[in-house]
Amino acid sequence: MAKVSLISCNTNLDPYPVYPLGMTMVAEAARLRGHDVSQWDLIVHGHNQADIRRFIQETQPDFVGLSLRNVDSANYNKPDAYFAEYKEVVEAIKSVSDAPIILGGSAYTIFPKEMLKELGADFGIAGEGEQAFCALLDQLEMDPDSAYPIYYNNTTMSGDNFACKIREPVLADYYLNKGGMLNVQTKRGCPHRCAYCSYPVLEGRRYRFRTPESVVDEIEMLVREYKADYYFVTDSVFNDAAGNYLKIARELVRRGIDVPWTCYLRPDNFTRDEAELLKRSGLSSVEWGTDCATDVTLKALRKDFTWDQVIHSNNLFAEMGIYNAHFIILGGPRETPATVVEGLKNLTTLQRCVIFAGIGVRIFPGTAVYDWAIQEGQISAETNLLSPTFYFSRDIDRDVLHQEILSAFAGRLDRIYPDGDYVDAARAYHEMGRRGPAWDMLLKMNISR
Question: What's this model's pTM, rounded to 2 decimal places?
Answer without folding.
Answer: 0.94
